[in-house]
Amino acid sequence: MARIVMKFGGTSVADLDRIHNVARHVKREVDAGHQVAVVVSAMAGKTNELVNWVQSMPMVAGAEASFYDAREYDAIVASGEQVTSGLLAIALQSMGVDARSWQGWQIPVKTDNAHGAARILEIDGTEMIKRFEIGQVAVVAGFQGVGPDNRLATLGRGGSDTSAVAIAAAVQADRCDIYTDVDGVYTTDPRVEPKARRMKKIAFEEMLEMASLGAKVLQVRSVELAMVHKVRTFVRSSFDDPDAPEMSDPNNPPGTLICDEDEIVEQEVVTGIAYAKDEAQISLRRLSDRPGVSAAIFGPLADAHINVDMIVQNISEDGSRTDMTFTVPSGDAEKAQSVLERNKDVIGYDVVQSESGLAKISVIGIGMRSHAGVAATAFKALAEKSINIKAITTSEIKISILIDGAYAELAVRTLHSVYGLDKT
Ligand code: ADP
Ligand code: ASP
Ligand code: MG
Fold first, then answer.
1. Which residue in 8, 248, 290, 421 has its CB near the most CB atoms, within 10 A?
2. Which residue, judged by its Cα, is nearest atom 5 of ligand 2?
Protein backbone atom coordinates (compact mmCIF):
# COMPACT_ATOMS: atom_id res chain seq x y z
CA MET A 1 0.00 0.00 0.00
CA ALA A 2 1.24 3.45 -0.86
CA ARG A 3 0.10 7.00 -0.26
CA ILE A 4 -0.29 8.84 -3.54
CA VAL A 5 -1.13 12.41 -4.57
CA MET A 6 -2.70 12.62 -8.05
CA LYS A 7 -2.97 16.02 -9.75
CA PHE A 8 -5.17 16.67 -12.79
CA GLY A 9 -4.76 19.83 -14.89
CA GLY A 10 -7.33 21.93 -16.73
CA THR A 11 -7.61 19.88 -19.93
CA SER A 12 -7.98 16.69 -17.85
CA VAL A 13 -11.08 18.10 -16.10
CA ALA A 14 -12.32 20.21 -19.05
CA ASP A 15 -15.86 18.76 -19.03
CA LEU A 16 -18.04 16.25 -17.19
CA ASP A 17 -16.94 13.29 -19.33
CA ARG A 18 -13.32 13.99 -18.56
CA ILE A 19 -14.08 14.39 -14.86
CA HIS A 20 -15.61 10.89 -14.96
CA ASN A 21 -12.49 9.64 -16.71
CA VAL A 22 -10.35 11.21 -13.95
CA ALA A 23 -12.53 9.45 -11.38
CA ARG A 24 -11.67 6.13 -13.09
CA HIS A 25 -7.95 6.88 -12.70
CA VAL A 26 -8.51 7.62 -9.01
CA LYS A 27 -10.64 4.51 -8.50
CA ARG A 28 -7.87 2.38 -10.02
CA GLU A 29 -5.45 3.52 -7.31
CA VAL A 30 -8.06 3.17 -4.55
CA ASP A 31 -8.93 -0.36 -5.70
CA ALA A 32 -5.21 -1.21 -5.59
CA GLY A 33 -5.35 -0.39 -1.87
CA HIS A 34 -3.58 2.98 -1.96
CA GLN A 35 -4.38 6.04 0.11
CA VAL A 36 -5.17 8.88 -2.26
CA ALA A 37 -5.37 12.67 -2.28
CA VAL A 38 -6.37 14.28 -5.58
CA VAL A 39 -5.57 17.87 -6.53
CA VAL A 40 -7.57 19.47 -9.34
CA SER A 41 -7.26 22.55 -11.53
CA ALA A 42 -10.18 24.53 -12.89
CA MET A 43 -11.73 23.41 -16.20
CA ALA A 44 -9.52 24.42 -19.15
CA GLY A 45 -10.06 28.09 -20.05
CA LYS A 46 -12.00 28.85 -16.86
CA THR A 47 -9.18 30.67 -15.04
CA ASN A 48 -8.50 32.80 -18.13
CA GLU A 49 -12.19 33.72 -18.27
CA LEU A 50 -12.19 34.70 -14.59
CA VAL A 51 -9.00 36.76 -14.98
CA ASN A 52 -10.52 38.54 -18.00
CA TRP A 53 -13.61 39.40 -15.97
CA VAL A 54 -11.47 40.98 -13.26
CA GLN A 55 -9.46 42.92 -15.81
CA SER A 56 -12.53 44.31 -17.52
CA MET A 57 -13.92 45.78 -14.30
CA PRO A 58 -13.73 49.56 -13.86
CA MET A 59 -10.60 50.72 -12.05
CA VAL A 60 -10.63 51.46 -8.34
CA ALA A 61 -11.06 55.24 -7.95
CA GLY A 62 -7.71 57.02 -7.95
CA ALA A 63 -5.71 53.90 -8.86
CA GLU A 64 -3.08 53.65 -11.59
CA ALA A 65 -4.00 51.77 -14.76
CA SER A 66 -4.43 48.00 -14.35
CA PHE A 67 -4.62 48.15 -10.56
CA TYR A 68 -7.27 46.11 -8.82
CA ASP A 69 -7.66 44.76 -5.30
CA ALA A 70 -5.60 41.56 -5.42
CA ARG A 71 -7.62 40.00 -2.59
CA GLU A 72 -10.78 40.29 -4.68
CA TYR A 73 -8.88 38.98 -7.73
CA ASP A 74 -8.08 35.88 -5.65
CA ALA A 75 -11.67 35.52 -4.43
CA ILE A 76 -12.85 35.42 -8.04
CA VAL A 77 -10.06 33.49 -9.71
CA ALA A 78 -9.94 30.69 -7.09
CA SER A 79 -13.55 29.75 -7.82
CA GLY A 80 -12.80 27.50 -10.81
CA GLU A 81 -11.10 24.91 -8.62
CA GLN A 82 -13.96 24.96 -6.11
CA VAL A 83 -16.29 23.72 -8.86
CA THR A 84 -14.05 20.91 -10.19
CA SER A 85 -13.19 19.60 -6.72
CA GLY A 86 -16.89 19.26 -5.87
CA LEU A 87 -17.73 17.66 -9.22
CA LEU A 88 -14.94 15.11 -8.92
CA ALA A 89 -15.98 14.20 -5.37
CA ILE A 90 -19.51 13.52 -6.66
CA ALA A 91 -18.18 11.50 -9.63
CA LEU A 92 -16.14 9.35 -7.20
CA GLN A 93 -19.11 8.89 -4.87
CA SER A 94 -21.19 7.73 -7.86
CA MET A 95 -18.61 4.96 -8.39
CA GLY A 96 -18.82 3.88 -4.77
CA VAL A 97 -15.61 5.61 -3.68
CA ASP A 98 -15.75 7.50 -0.37
CA ALA A 99 -14.56 11.03 -1.23
CA ARG A 100 -14.96 14.62 -0.11
CA SER A 101 -13.77 17.95 -1.48
CA TRP A 102 -11.45 20.31 0.40
CA GLN A 103 -10.97 24.00 -0.31
CA GLY A 104 -7.57 25.49 0.52
CA TRP A 105 -8.84 27.22 3.68
CA GLN A 106 -10.44 24.05 5.00
CA ILE A 107 -7.23 22.01 5.17
CA PRO A 108 -5.75 24.66 5.72
CA VAL A 109 -3.10 25.45 3.10
CA LYS A 110 -1.50 28.50 4.74
CA THR A 111 0.19 31.00 2.43
CA ASP A 112 1.94 34.34 2.69
CA ASN A 113 0.17 37.58 1.90
CA ALA A 114 1.30 38.00 -1.73
CA HIS A 115 -2.18 37.82 -3.24
CA GLY A 116 -2.17 36.58 -6.83
CA ALA A 117 1.26 34.96 -6.45
CA ALA A 118 1.22 33.63 -2.90
CA ARG A 119 3.71 31.07 -1.57
CA ILE A 120 2.67 28.14 0.56
CA LEU A 121 4.08 28.42 4.09
CA GLU A 122 2.54 25.43 5.81
CA ILE A 123 0.00 22.67 5.23
CA ASP A 124 -1.63 20.77 8.06
CA GLY A 125 -2.11 17.23 6.75
CA THR A 126 -3.46 15.75 10.02
CA GLU A 127 -7.13 15.56 9.14
CA MET A 128 -6.47 14.28 5.63
CA ILE A 129 -4.21 11.54 7.00
CA LYS A 130 -6.81 10.56 9.60
CA ARG A 131 -9.36 10.12 6.83
CA PHE A 132 -6.95 8.18 4.59
CA GLU A 133 -6.91 5.59 7.36
CA ILE A 134 -10.67 5.04 6.93
CA GLY A 135 -10.34 4.88 3.14
CA GLN A 136 -11.58 8.36 2.28
CA VAL A 137 -10.19 10.15 -0.78
CA ALA A 138 -9.41 13.85 -0.34
CA VAL A 139 -10.24 15.91 -3.44
CA VAL A 140 -8.38 19.18 -2.99
CA ALA A 141 -8.98 22.41 -4.91
CA GLY A 142 -5.55 23.31 -6.29
CA PHE A 143 -4.09 26.80 -6.84
CA GLN A 144 -5.49 28.19 -3.58
CA GLY A 145 -4.79 28.63 0.11
CA VAL A 146 -5.53 31.09 2.87
CA GLY A 147 -3.34 34.09 3.73
CA PRO A 148 -2.42 35.51 7.15
CA ASP A 149 -5.24 38.03 6.59
CA ASN A 150 -7.63 35.03 6.58
CA ARG A 151 -8.50 35.66 2.93
CA LEU A 152 -8.33 33.39 -0.10
CA ALA A 153 -4.94 33.50 -1.79
CA THR A 154 -3.96 32.02 -5.17
CA LEU A 155 -0.54 30.67 -6.04
CA GLY A 156 0.12 32.21 -9.46
CA ARG A 157 -0.81 30.72 -12.83
CA GLY A 158 -0.19 27.00 -13.08
CA GLY A 159 -0.18 26.84 -9.27
CA SER A 160 -2.07 23.55 -8.90
CA ASP A 161 1.19 21.71 -9.61
CA THR A 162 2.62 23.42 -6.54
CA SER A 163 -0.46 22.58 -4.46
CA ALA A 164 0.01 18.92 -5.39
CA VAL A 165 3.71 18.69 -4.56
CA ALA A 166 3.24 20.66 -1.32
CA ILE A 167 0.41 18.36 -0.23
CA ALA A 168 2.52 15.32 -1.14
CA ALA A 169 5.27 16.67 1.13
CA ALA A 170 2.81 17.48 3.93
CA VAL A 171 1.20 14.02 4.01
CA GLN A 172 4.53 12.25 3.34
CA ALA A 173 3.21 10.70 0.15
CA ASP A 174 5.24 8.03 -1.60
CA ARG A 175 4.60 9.66 -4.96
CA CYS A 176 3.09 12.70 -6.64
CA ASP A 177 1.64 11.98 -10.08
CA ILE A 178 1.01 15.03 -12.25
CA TYR A 179 -1.55 13.99 -14.87
CA THR A 180 -1.74 16.29 -17.87
CA ASP A 181 -2.48 16.33 -21.61
CA VAL A 182 0.98 14.97 -22.55
CA ASP A 183 2.41 11.67 -21.37
CA GLY A 184 5.57 13.10 -19.86
CA VAL A 185 8.25 15.74 -20.15
CA TYR A 186 9.60 16.00 -23.69
CA THR A 187 12.90 17.28 -25.04
CA THR A 188 10.91 20.33 -26.14
CA ASP A 189 7.25 21.33 -26.34
CA PRO A 190 5.73 18.54 -28.47
CA ARG A 191 3.20 21.03 -29.84
CA VAL A 192 6.06 22.92 -31.51
CA GLU A 193 8.28 19.99 -32.48
CA PRO A 194 6.47 16.70 -33.20
CA LYS A 195 9.89 15.03 -33.29
CA ALA A 196 10.37 15.78 -29.57
CA ARG A 197 11.15 12.72 -27.48
CA ARG A 198 9.68 11.79 -24.11
CA MET A 199 12.31 11.55 -21.40
CA LYS A 200 12.21 8.64 -18.99
CA LYS A 201 13.86 10.78 -16.30
CA ILE A 202 14.96 14.39 -15.93
CA ALA A 203 17.05 15.89 -13.12
CA PHE A 204 15.40 18.41 -10.77
CA GLU A 205 17.85 21.13 -11.79
CA GLU A 206 17.19 20.64 -15.49
CA MET A 207 13.44 20.60 -14.93
CA LEU A 208 13.77 23.81 -12.91
CA GLU A 209 15.56 25.49 -15.82
CA MET A 210 13.10 24.08 -18.38
CA ALA A 211 10.13 25.35 -16.32
CA SER A 212 11.58 28.77 -15.55
CA LEU A 213 12.60 29.26 -19.17
CA GLY A 214 9.12 28.65 -20.51
CA ALA A 215 8.20 24.92 -20.50
CA LYS A 216 4.94 25.34 -18.64
CA VAL A 217 4.38 21.61 -18.14
CA LEU A 218 5.20 22.19 -14.43
CA GLN A 219 5.06 25.39 -12.40
CA VAL A 220 8.60 26.41 -11.34
CA ARG A 221 7.76 26.48 -7.65
CA SER A 222 6.45 22.90 -7.76
CA VAL A 223 9.83 21.69 -9.02
CA GLU A 224 11.65 23.64 -6.28
CA LEU A 225 9.43 22.05 -3.64
CA ALA A 226 9.85 18.57 -5.11
CA MET A 227 13.62 19.06 -5.06
CA VAL A 228 13.76 20.33 -1.47
CA HIS A 229 11.34 17.76 -0.03
CA LYS A 230 12.52 14.91 -2.26
CA VAL A 231 9.03 14.22 -3.58
CA ARG A 232 9.06 11.53 -6.30
CA THR A 233 7.18 13.36 -9.03
CA PHE A 234 5.92 11.72 -12.21
CA VAL A 235 4.47 13.59 -15.17
CA ARG A 236 1.99 11.35 -16.99
CA SER A 237 -1.11 11.46 -19.19
CA SER A 238 -4.72 11.51 -18.03
CA PHE A 239 -5.77 10.50 -21.56
CA ASP A 240 -4.21 7.04 -21.26
CA ASP A 241 -6.72 4.25 -20.61
CA PRO A 242 -7.22 4.27 -16.82
CA ASP A 243 -7.48 0.47 -16.78
CA ALA A 244 -4.46 -0.41 -18.95
CA PRO A 245 -2.27 -2.83 -16.94
CA GLU A 246 0.92 -0.71 -17.18
CA MET A 247 -0.90 2.20 -15.52
CA SER A 248 -0.73 0.47 -12.14
CA ASP A 249 2.98 -0.38 -12.23
CA PRO A 250 3.96 1.11 -8.85
CA ASN A 251 7.61 1.84 -9.64
CA ASN A 252 7.54 2.65 -13.28
CA PRO A 253 4.27 4.17 -14.45
CA PRO A 254 4.37 5.42 -18.06
CA GLY A 255 5.64 9.00 -17.87
CA THR A 256 8.66 11.04 -16.82
CA LEU A 257 10.21 10.88 -13.37
CA ILE A 258 11.73 14.10 -12.00
CA CYS A 259 14.63 12.95 -9.85
CA ASP A 260 18.12 13.54 -8.50
CA GLU A 261 20.87 13.84 -11.07
CA ASP A 262 22.57 10.73 -9.59
CA GLU A 263 19.62 8.57 -10.61
CA ILE A 264 20.27 9.31 -14.28
CA VAL A 265 22.81 6.95 -15.74
CA GLU A 266 23.28 8.29 -19.25
CA GLN A 267 23.47 12.06 -18.97
CA GLU A 268 23.20 13.89 -22.30
CA VAL A 269 25.08 17.15 -22.89
CA VAL A 270 21.86 18.89 -23.93
CA THR A 271 18.60 17.51 -22.53
CA GLY A 272 16.03 20.00 -23.72
CA ILE A 273 15.03 23.20 -25.48
CA ALA A 274 12.59 25.66 -23.89
CA TYR A 275 11.09 28.83 -25.28
CA ALA A 276 9.26 31.88 -23.98
CA LYS A 277 7.37 34.13 -26.36
CA ASP A 278 6.17 37.65 -25.68
CA GLU A 279 9.42 39.05 -24.42
CA ALA A 280 10.24 42.75 -24.87
CA GLN A 281 13.64 44.37 -25.07
CA ILE A 282 14.27 47.76 -23.51
CA SER A 283 17.39 49.79 -24.27
CA LEU A 284 18.72 52.88 -22.52
CA ARG A 285 20.95 54.82 -24.89
CA ARG A 286 23.90 56.99 -23.87
CA LEU A 287 23.56 56.10 -20.24
CA SER A 288 25.96 57.72 -17.82
CA ASP A 289 28.64 55.17 -16.89
CA ARG A 290 29.10 55.60 -13.12
CA PRO A 291 28.72 53.60 -9.90
CA GLY A 292 25.08 53.22 -8.85
CA VAL A 293 23.54 53.53 -12.28
CA SER A 294 22.34 49.91 -12.40
CA ALA A 295 20.77 50.30 -8.97
CA ALA A 296 19.04 53.48 -10.18
CA ILE A 297 17.52 51.56 -13.10
CA PHE A 298 16.62 48.20 -11.60
CA GLY A 299 15.59 49.38 -8.11
CA PRO A 300 12.50 51.28 -9.30
CA LEU A 301 11.64 48.46 -11.76
CA ALA A 302 11.73 45.93 -8.92
CA ASP A 303 9.60 48.24 -6.76
CA ALA A 304 7.05 48.23 -9.60
CA HIS A 305 7.12 44.36 -9.54
CA ILE A 306 8.56 44.17 -13.04
CA ASN A 307 10.44 40.97 -13.67
CA VAL A 308 13.68 41.84 -15.47
CA ASP A 309 15.45 39.01 -17.24
CA MET A 310 18.43 39.21 -19.63
CA ILE A 311 20.65 42.22 -18.90
CA VAL A 312 23.37 43.33 -21.32
CA GLN A 313 25.60 46.31 -20.63
CA ASN A 314 28.08 47.49 -23.23
CA ILE A 315 31.60 48.51 -22.36
CA SER A 316 31.81 52.27 -22.52
CA GLU A 317 33.88 53.60 -25.41
CA ASP A 318 34.87 56.89 -23.78
CA GLY A 319 34.44 56.00 -20.11
CA SER A 320 31.45 58.31 -19.62
CA ARG A 321 28.52 56.96 -21.66
CA THR A 322 27.28 53.44 -22.44
CA ASP A 323 24.18 51.47 -23.50
CA MET A 324 22.15 49.10 -21.32
CA THR A 325 19.66 46.57 -22.70
CA PHE A 326 17.41 44.18 -20.80
CA THR A 327 14.25 42.13 -21.32
CA VAL A 328 10.88 42.11 -19.55
CA PRO A 329 7.61 40.28 -20.37
CA SER A 330 5.85 42.16 -23.22
CA GLY A 331 2.90 42.89 -20.94
CA ASP A 332 5.20 44.92 -18.65
CA ALA A 333 7.07 46.86 -21.37
CA GLU A 334 4.90 49.97 -21.27
CA LYS A 335 4.96 50.09 -17.48
CA ALA A 336 8.75 49.63 -17.47
CA GLN A 337 9.18 52.46 -19.95
CA SER A 338 7.10 54.84 -17.89
CA VAL A 339 9.01 53.92 -14.69
CA LEU A 340 12.29 54.70 -16.50
CA GLU A 341 10.97 57.97 -17.90
CA ARG A 342 9.84 59.04 -14.44
CA ASN A 343 13.37 58.37 -13.14
CA LYS A 344 15.20 59.86 -16.13
CA ASP A 345 16.96 62.62 -14.18
CA VAL A 346 18.22 60.29 -11.46
CA ILE A 347 19.40 57.62 -13.93
CA GLY A 348 20.82 59.96 -16.60
CA TYR A 349 20.35 58.76 -20.21
CA ASP A 350 19.44 60.11 -23.66
CA VAL A 351 16.58 57.94 -24.86
CA VAL A 352 14.75 54.78 -23.92
CA GLN A 353 13.73 52.43 -26.74
CA SER A 354 11.56 49.36 -26.55
CA GLU A 355 10.81 46.47 -28.92
CA SER A 356 8.10 43.88 -28.25
CA GLY A 357 7.26 40.53 -29.84
CA LEU A 358 10.59 38.83 -29.15
CA ALA A 359 11.22 35.24 -28.06
CA LYS A 360 13.79 33.67 -25.78
CA ILE A 361 15.01 30.22 -26.78
CA SER A 362 17.02 28.24 -24.21
CA VAL A 363 19.24 25.20 -24.50
CA ILE A 364 19.43 23.21 -21.24
CA GLY A 365 21.62 20.38 -20.01
CA ILE A 366 23.64 19.47 -16.94
CA GLY A 367 26.26 17.93 -19.26
CA MET A 368 27.16 21.46 -20.41
CA ARG A 369 29.13 21.91 -17.21
CA SER A 370 31.82 19.69 -18.60
CA HIS A 371 31.53 20.26 -22.36
CA ALA A 372 32.88 23.13 -24.43
CA GLY A 373 31.40 24.38 -27.70
CA VAL A 374 27.72 23.97 -26.89
CA ALA A 375 27.00 27.68 -27.39
CA ALA A 376 29.00 27.89 -30.60
CA THR A 377 26.91 25.05 -32.08
CA ALA A 378 23.72 27.00 -31.38
CA PHE A 379 25.05 30.23 -32.89
CA LYS A 380 26.18 28.48 -36.06
CA ALA A 381 22.88 26.61 -36.49
CA LEU A 382 20.85 29.81 -36.08
CA ALA A 383 23.14 31.70 -38.47
CA GLU A 384 22.56 29.04 -41.12
CA LYS A 385 18.82 29.76 -40.86
CA SER A 386 19.54 33.53 -41.02
CA ILE A 387 18.08 34.06 -37.54
CA ASN A 388 19.54 37.17 -35.94
CA ILE A 389 20.58 37.00 -32.28
CA LYS A 390 19.69 40.07 -30.22
CA ALA A 391 21.05 39.08 -26.81
CA ILE A 392 22.63 36.07 -25.13
CA THR A 393 22.89 34.96 -21.50
CA THR A 394 24.44 31.82 -20.13
CA SER A 395 24.68 29.91 -16.88
CA GLU A 396 26.43 26.68 -15.98
CA ILE A 397 23.68 24.51 -17.44
CA LYS A 398 21.85 26.74 -19.95
CA ILE A 399 22.22 29.17 -22.83
CA SER A 400 19.41 31.62 -23.59
CA ILE A 401 19.15 33.46 -26.90
CA LEU A 402 16.83 36.37 -27.68
CA ILE A 403 15.45 36.50 -31.23
CA ASP A 404 12.57 37.95 -33.23
CA GLY A 405 9.34 36.19 -32.13
CA ALA A 406 8.43 35.25 -35.71
CA TYR A 407 11.34 32.78 -35.77
CA ALA A 408 10.63 31.14 -32.40
CA GLU A 409 9.31 27.82 -33.74
CA LEU A 410 11.99 27.61 -36.42
CA ALA A 411 14.72 28.25 -33.84
CA VAL A 412 13.30 25.62 -31.45
CA ARG A 413 13.21 23.01 -34.21
CA THR A 414 16.67 23.96 -35.49
CA LEU A 415 18.29 23.68 -32.08
CA HIS A 416 16.37 20.51 -31.25
CA SER A 417 17.80 18.89 -34.34
CA VAL A 418 21.36 20.22 -34.10
CA TYR A 419 21.82 18.72 -30.61
CA GLY A 420 20.55 15.35 -31.82
CA LEU A 421 17.33 15.42 -29.81
CA ASP A 422 15.01 14.51 -32.71
CA LYS A 423 13.20 11.22 -32.49
CA THR A 424 14.68 8.79 -34.99
P1 ADP B 1 -2.21 21.29 -17.23
O2 ADP B 1 -3.46 22.00 -17.59
O3 ADP B 1 -2.40 19.81 -17.12
O4 ADP B 1 -1.54 21.85 -16.01
P5 ADP B 1 -0.34 22.64 -18.96
O6 ADP B 1 -0.95 23.19 -20.19
O7 ADP B 1 -0.06 23.58 -17.83
O8 ADP B 1 -1.23 21.42 -18.47
O9 ADP B 1 1.02 21.89 -19.30
C10 ADP B 1 1.06 20.89 -20.31
C11 ADP B 1 1.55 21.47 -21.61
O12 ADP B 1 2.91 21.86 -21.47
C13 ADP B 1 1.58 20.50 -22.78
O14 ADP B 1 0.34 20.45 -23.46
C15 ADP B 1 2.69 21.05 -23.67
O16 ADP B 1 2.20 21.76 -24.78
C17 ADP B 1 3.43 22.04 -22.76
N18 ADP B 1 4.87 21.82 -22.74
C19 ADP B 1 5.81 22.78 -22.92
N20 ADP B 1 7.03 22.27 -22.89
C21 ADP B 1 6.90 20.94 -22.67
C22 ADP B 1 7.83 19.86 -22.56
N23 ADP B 1 9.14 20.06 -22.64
N24 ADP B 1 7.34 18.62 -22.34
C25 ADP B 1 6.01 18.40 -22.24
N26 ADP B 1 5.08 19.38 -22.37
C27 ADP B 1 5.52 20.64 -22.59
N1 ASP C 1 -6.33 27.00 -12.87
C2 ASP C 1 -5.07 27.68 -12.57
C3 ASP C 1 -4.47 28.27 -13.84
O4 ASP C 1 -5.03 28.11 -14.92
C5 ASP C 1 -4.09 26.82 -11.87
C6 ASP C 1 -3.61 25.62 -12.64
O7 ASP C 1 -4.23 25.24 -13.64
O8 ASP C 1 -2.60 25.04 -12.24
O9 ASP C 1 -3.47 28.92 -13.78
MG1 MG D 1 -0.30 23.55 -15.75
1. 8
2. 158
